[in-house]
Design brief:
Distance between the termini: 53 Å
Largest sheet: 6 strands, antiparallel
Number of helices: 10
Number of domains: 3
Strand order of the largest sheet: 4-3-2-1-6-5
Radius of gyration: 25 Å
Shape: globular
Helix content: 25-40%
Number of strands: 13
Strand content: 15-25%
Length: 390
Amino acid sequence: MATNDHPDPIERMAELGREYRHLRQEHDREAARGASRRQLGREMQRLTDRFERLLEHWVHDAALRDAWSAYFHHGAEQPQEPRLSLPPLLRGRNEAGAVVEILPASDGGYDLIVDGARAEHHEIPWHLEPELIEPFRIGEHTCHETFSAPDEAVAALRTFVEQPRTSPPWVWSRELYEDGLIDADFALTPRGARRLGEHQGESPGIAGGERHNYCVILVNAARARILTLASTTPLGRPTLATLDEAADTVNPASRARDGERLSDTRPGLRREGPHGPRHGVSDRRDAHRDETERRFVESVADEAAEVWSRFHACTIVLVAAPQALGLLRPAVARHLRGQTPYEVVELPRELTKLAAPALHDALAGAGVLPPPGRLPPIKPLPAPNPWPPR
């Protein structure tokens, strides 16, 4: 199951496959020597590299690798392996000794599990930041966090985080992932940061230090997305934190046909009267569409305010085409009257359709988010010499 905080390797590879084939369709429609075709080709290669990296590290059976490659390149049936245990956002024990967990739910929300039984369900993500000090207060439970990954795995993870040029310790990937310390791309999770910092009294990270929170809002007339990033690095330095989706909303009115919303299906229709045709009648379609879009954007700002208010301080990033940005700006400002710990930055671009990793790249390139930390590329091993020296 794919989740915002712990992307499952299966769903991550499936998402890359869907995005790759969509780009390939656009690539095939472009002119053979056009700049757009070259740009699409570069993006397809980037997706292929990411897919091959995941395949290399998470799928060890040769037949299963072939099945995943057929899915990615040709749209064959999606494999359902490898299967991993669901990683927790938090796992600990309360004062009564009960095991308390926060787990991602299938609907994109989060479940509070107490001794294996679901006690609560929430749609808004929990933000358990690395610098939180125990004991945690989760609902009615006061908890001390517990971990299950072997000490050797944690030591290897610490070395990788403190020395970014080293290769990730993929030999421990399953143990670290199932304990919720890393995600499918070997990016450190907030729980992983707490695990590494528990004996040091501070949060680790590529650069350690002050926590920087971001709430990204993307809007167009038909769709809106809200994503968050919690990083321990300054704006210009790489981060192992991931851009996590908090909400994805579709504007149903934008998909309705004119005939479903308005009395006439054609604006300015000339109607027949008893003495011949009468003048055209307008039902103010443009004004109606503008009002519908404005209400949608305001509802998105309301939802985003619930997300950013969970951070004690936050940079709010507004991303939309200029016309939609003109609606989003006052809708957000309505929630930020007076001096607040929230800073607002704007990017007048349409990026709603980008997957979270590609979106992170684009926003980092525009200078509004810290760039994602990169894993070293996979390099094929040299083929063995079939004629060894005698």
